[in-house]
Structures are given as structure tokens and as C-alpha cells.
Design goal:
This protein is mainly beta. It contains two helices and eleven strands, in the order E-E-E-E-E-H-H-E-E-E-E-E-E. The protein has a single domain, classed as Jelly Rolls.
Length: about 190
Amino acid sequence: MIESIKRVITGVDDAGNSTVTSSGVLNPVFSRPPADEQGKSERIVPLWQVWGTPDGSVSFEDLAEPVHAPLFPGPGGTRFLVFVIPPDSTVADPVYGEGQATDDLPGLREAHETAGEDAAFHATDTIDYCFVAEGEVVLELDGGRLERLTRGSCVVQRGTRHAWRNPTDQPALIVVSCVGVLRDSTSTTSQ
């Protein structure tokens, strides 16, 4: 499993030439969504917020810093994330405070359902392009539908209620690009 991520950002210099505007190692954000009745958690630890753009129309505008809050973008905004899903058997660390996720990742808690068996379920107003880079996970949907995803699997998550599970004994690495969308009232997906 990777322990660090290098981010390289390109741009255009004053002469109109392509150039690297930023290059360096990213620090992860550590978070823990609500735990279920057994004290287990669908922890997403660590999570690297690689890049994000403001809500509205996306442009090549040079941003001094990427936009990371809220975690899930509004219409026209984007987020590029890399995160680890630990094994389901991993018990949440009681030392790591509940408030930390809210402070570090605004919007994460609000997207998830209340604590309990369904605490891992969430739905966002985004289209998420997901890639399983390492390991194996299960995408759980309504009605108990389970879809096993192995290394190299891709998912286009279109705002549906879902949960990520990891029934193995190894962590899984997921790469996601989120695009904020308007959820219209006639949509077949619902929260």
C-alpha cells in the first residue's frame, strides 16, 4: 500500500509555455465516519485530497491552492481524491476523536446516515469516477445488492445511496474523481 502521494500541477507561464507550477508530496487527512453498533467503523484512513476546483464552471484559472471544502463539490466543482478502505474487521481507534472528521473533511458526516448498521451508507450530489488501484472492496447498494470490485475495477457512481465494504484482511486503495451535479427531481437516483 502506498504511504505517500506526489502531486504535480501544470500550468502556463508568462511566455505561454507549459510548465510545472507546483510539485510536492501531499500530506493525508485522517478521518473516521460514524461507527456501527459493534464499534466498528468504515474508516477512510488516510485520504489524500489531490486537487479540487470551485463550484461553477471549471476553467484553467490558476488557483493558489486547490479547493477541498466541502469534501463533496457543488454543481460544476470537482475533487480528486485517493483513499484507503481498511478491512471491515478493523475496529475504530477510540483515541481518534469523532470531531476530527468534521473539522478535517467538512461535508463527510452530513453525507452519511446516522450511526448504526447503515452508518457507512451515503449519497452525494456528485458523479464519482472510481478506480480500485489496490486490494478488493465490495460496493453495497440498496436491497442488499453487492458488487465485488478487484484491482483494476472501475465504477461510475451516479449519486446513488451506497456503502464501501472491505471483507478482506488487506486495505484497499481507491482513486476517485468527483464532479458536482444538480440533482433534479425527476432523477432515478435518490438520497
